[in-house]
Amino acid sequence: RQRWRADERALRKLPVHVGLVVTEEEPSYADMASLVVWCMAVGISYVSVYDHNGIFKRNNSRLMDEILKQQQELLGLDCSKYTVEFANQDKAGQVLNCQSTLKVLSPEDGKADIVKAAQNFCQLVAQQQRTHTDLDVNMLDNLLSSTNGFPDPDLVLKFGPVNSTLGFLPWHIRLTEIISLPSHLNISYEDFFSALHHYAACEQRWGK
């Protein structure tokens, strides 16, 4: 645990929200769990897990079991509780960790969520609860359900050979730093920390 704290202090800046995007066809629950636990260990507050086939979301209990196992192995049992949320579900579970929040996402939380938000806004206009001039960035953010309570990702770690995020939160990654890694399979902590170090050193111009 001392190593996690030392690594956090070694970074000039730490992303608040990290997206873990797998573009490979065969996702690994153990390797993804390692990435999630490492994010939490260094102090990242929000983590999103995404694969374009929705495998992690359909099998989130299996992913959670692996995360719990690795939390106990790597972090011990003395961390405080945090809430794990699953997008578009009402369920929330308690596990042990260090004040981080996780969402498991699938393509339905991307473009489909934007379409649903637009439909909801049109319904509000039809009911004369809103006018078309009320629609702005903040309004659309509030209407989107998949990332309710989550800030936009500061960093996306994309795993695999595909040069695309394959539908991961297209509205929310306008200003996100995206770092590509060859694979999440058998990824090492050193590879993960190197990506964080690269993010900490980059100059973000926010579109300027």
UniProtKB/TrEMBL annotation:
Family of the protein in this entry: Belongs to the UPP synthase family.
Function recorded in the entry: With DHDDS, forms the dehydrodolichyl diphosphate synthase (DDS) complex, an essential component of the dolichol monophosphate (Dol-P) biosynthetic machinery. Both subunits contribute to enzymatic activity, i.e. condensation of multiple copies of isopentenyl pyrophosphate (IPP) to farnesyl pyrophosphate (FPP) to produce dehydrodolichyl diphosphate (Dedol-PP), a precursor of dolichol phosphate which is utilized as a sugar carrier in protein glycosylation in the endoplasmic reticulum (ER). Synthesizes long-chain polyprenols, mostly of C95 and C100 chain length.
This protein's name: Dehydrodolichyl diphosphate synthase complex subunit NUS1
Domain of life assignment: Eukaryota
One Pfam family named in its UniProt record: Prenyltransf
Molecular functions per Gene Ontology: ditrans,polycis-polyprenyl diphosphate synthase [(2E,6E)-farnesyl diphosphate specific] activity
Predominant subcellular localization, coarse grouping: endoplasmic reticulum
Cofactor(s) named in the record: Mg(2+)
Gene: Nus1
Organism in which the protein naturally occurs: Climacteris rufus (rufous treecreeper)
GO cellular component terms given for this protein: dehydrodolichyl diphosphate synthase complex; endoplasmic reticulum membrane
This protein's pathway: Protein modification; protein glycosylation; Lipid metabolism
